[in-house]
Amino acid sequence: MAELKFIGGYPEYMRKFIDIVNKTRAKRKDYTPIAMTMEQRDEVLKVHPDYAPGGKRSISIGLNKGDMAPNEVADLIEAYPLIQGNEVDLTKPDLSVDLLIIGGGLAGTAAAVWANDKGVDKDQILLVNKLRHGDANSIMAEGGTQAADRENDSPARHFLDAIGGGHFTNKPDVLRALVEDAPLIMKWLCDLGAILDREEDGSFVEKAGGGTSRRRMHACKDYTGLEELRVIRDEFRNREIPYLEYYPVIELLTDGNRVTGAVLYNLETGDYKIIQAKATILATGGFGRLHVRGFPTTNHYGATCDGVVLAYRAGAKLRDTDTVQYHPTGAAYPQQIIGLLLTEKLRGMGAQPVNKNGEAFVFPLEPRDVEAASFIRECYVKENGIVTPTGMRGVWLDTPMIELKNGEGTIEKSFPGMFRMFNRFDLDIRKDPVLVFPTLHYQNGGVESDPWGKTNVDSLWVAGEVSGGIHGKNRLMGNSTLDCLVFGRRTGISTAEYLKSDVKHGKLMLEHMKNYVTMLKQAGIDTTRKAPILLPDYRGKAVLARMIDVF
Amino acid sequence: MPEKDNNIMDKIAESNKSVVTGIDEKDIEHWITISILGSEYKVPAGLTIMQAMEFAGYRFVRSCGCRAGFCGACTTVYRIVGDYRLKTAMACQTRVEQGMYLTQIPFTPAERANYDIDKLSPGIEPFLIHYPEILRCLGCNSCTKACPQDIDVMEYIAAGKRGDVALMAELSFDCIQCGLCAMRCPAELAQYNYAQLARRLHGKYETPLPNHLKNRVKEIEQGKYNEELDKLVQTSTEELKKVYTARDIEKA
Ligand SMILES: Cc1cc2nc3c(=O)[nH]c(=O)nc-3n(C[C@H](O)[C@H](O)[C@H](O)COP(=O)(O)OP(=O)(O)OC[C@H]3O[C@@H](n4cnc5c(N)ncnc54)[C@H](O)[C@@H]3O)c2cc1C
Ligand code: SF4
Ligand code: SF4
Ligand code: FES
């Protein structure tokens, strides 16, 4: 076949569709489709991956037996451990610490700094990371962090917005902690020296997000997570808190009742380490790399659901495992960046979803699930999508509208990260729209906790995306970086308190894991699946087919 | 309404196959040749360096983090056959080209100072105390040329030498701490660590807490919202739904 001819980064045939968008822009400028009624929402949600038939099953063992979960998640819950137990020597831990923190995203890193603030000696803390410290979903947050700190706003309003967005399934006591601490967290970030977007008069720039009734989204251009994480990590490093990299936890240890440590695995050398700890905070983030229902994802390389798997085996209770958040605007073109996020803030500032006929077909700021479903319907039911050279379908997000509405230069100033990403592939989002399709974004459910992050298992806390309850069955934009910081702080404080009560180290055992294996067998789960999976595998099919094991 | 809904899900999964389960040769029309650490591989045209290495059979442990240009893990240097210039890139954000030969730099050895941000103030002093070597910059511009974020690194170092942390913070804001500038610097600087210090100094000392935030924090500490929140936590879902639907919405 002849080479495709490219004009401005797009093949010729896509160019024709772009011309339609460019031509209809002026007409659409003052037109916004009206928001859907509840009935219309219900109708369109039928093609949302969470609601479309199939894709889920009920969990067959453990505390949450009977709860629904995506097949990809159930597969990991119903999988065998990476170790049997007898190959690791539990009699002599390699290291004993007061506080073990698993996962160094915003949640884990904040927890370490707060625990140290509240009196846990730095050398009694260990932060372990699967990849480098900071290779995490946190560093990619673009849009912002919510906090009700303007005069016409209040924590109560923030509560209402979040619980409505979560379809009234949020756990009220933890949600209360989230909204009440939010302004304190903004202050903490500023005190550490984070640079937040400011108005001329020094007040914060605050924007609306999907489902917020007040403008309360704080951002650092479109590098919010990068700025928040690199500042907190810098503080963490200044305090010389010990940490390990490329050392994922592959199993928790318990004394039969409480969590007493963990088994670590060196991803490069293949040997293990036994860590003994009096308190453990699990902050391993989400599961985008499971590619639920075959969707691409916005998540980082290590987002593989490890924390949920480990905690469940140790007896922790999960909740809201049945819902997954798909972000409506993942990149659908070019191939190199499929699935990567185009922040909601783009729509917040005027970018319109448009179909192949140049029509604005949906209210741009419906809740994420409704917006995503409407894109799927446009592409697969109404056949109004654009097909890419790799066979993906998508609709346009009309980014040039942002400059038409807010003036030239807005995109480079407010979205430098987005502008740069597309520019690298010769696409100019100031001049041309971008093609989008829903992408797997966030693990709504997770390990249940109380308002201090404490789980039902003694000595085990959770913070961040691995936890469940705060957002119920659907999270609003800007509430999860907030969740990480609030519950990072709270778990840091709470574990420090706990450690003051003269806790002793417990025995290091894997009985819980062995019992879990017995349960799996009793339930007739006959599989070679193992979990946690630690990393996804994207190697080419041809190579995999010829792989042999010689060492 | 639609054709079978799960049929739609199957179609979506089918169209996403290449980014989810790895690339199948059968689907590829255009090929190029690249060299990874000196060994040649035929790979599909149009992939990122990261995707191409995976296609070739590499399963990353190092040099792969966010896969989206934010974390700085996938630092790569390369040349194109026939071109003398040494180029730099983030593997997750750069397309492979015919004749590319490359290596990755999974770790940058760079000195970083420990400091107490509460005991410093903006200006040249913090640099003289913690990073006096900043004065050694020769103005060669190699750092700027190497930066995959198109940051004017030399310029922010110049600002640092003058103690202008505001400018240094602004110019360096998009830094993903990939380490490429430091690897190229003939004066052996670790530019990105100095920039981190500058940004924190600027954020902490030159952008004071807004009053609206101070007031809100005080109100919370005084317990102004306790009663309202206590009540909300107890409110029935039915009632919550009513209040939620009735709430007014501020214009964006
Ligand atoms: C592209 C993108 C944009 C986003 N934008 C926003 C936004 O604008 N606003 C907002 O509020 N939220 C946003 N989110 C969501 C938010 O960023 C995340 O939910 C949140 O940062 C998660 O933080 P975390 O600390 O819980 O987990 P992470 O930041 O993912 O950190 C978890 C860490 O644990 C490590 N880990 C995993 N398993 C193990 C193991 N077995 N052993 C040891 N370590 C392990 C991981 O490698 C990782 O480093 C966005 C998310 C993405 C992906
Ligand atoms: S300034 Fe240096 S560390 Fe930062 S992105 Fe540029 S090259 Fe990388
Ligand atoms: S590479 Fe080093 S010496 Fe050259 S301009 Fe940059 S900082 Fe100065
Ligand atoms: S993997 Fe994070 S920048 Fe490339």
Task: Please explain how this structure is put together.
The complex is a heterodimer of chains A (about 550) and B (about 250). With about 550 residues, chain A is of the alpha+beta class. Chain A has two domains: about 5-50 and about 325-440, Succinate dehydrogenase/fumarate reductase flavoprotein, catalytic domain (Flavocytochrome C3, Chain A, domain 1, Alpha-Beta Complex); about 95-325 and about 445-500, FAD/NAD(P)-binding domain. Chain A contains 16 helices and 22 strands. In chain A, the strands form six sheets. In chain A, strands 5, 6, 10, 11, 12, 13 and 21 form a seven-stranded mixed sheet that branches. In chain A, strands 15, 16, 17, 18 and 19 form a five-stranded antiparallel sheet that branches. Chain B has three domains: about 30-105, Ubiquitin-like (UB roll); about 115-205, Orthogonal Bundle (Fumarate Reductase Iron-sulfur Protein, Chain B, domain 2); about 210-240, no CATH class. Chain B has helices at about 5-20, 50-55, 125-130, 140-145, 155-160, 165-170, 180-185, 190-205, 210-220, 225-235, 235-245, and strands at about 30-35, 40-45, 75-80, 85-90, 100-105. Chain B is flat, with a radius of gyration of 26 Å. By secondary structure, chain B is α+β, with helices and mostly antiparallel strands. At the A-B interface, α5, α6, α7, α10 and α13 of A face α1, α2, α8, α9 and α10 of B. The complex binds flavin-adenine dinucleotide (FAD), iron/sulfur cluster (SF4) (2 copies) and FE2/S2 (inorganic) cluster. The site of flavin-adenine dinucleotide has 47 residues of chain A, from α4, α7 and α14.
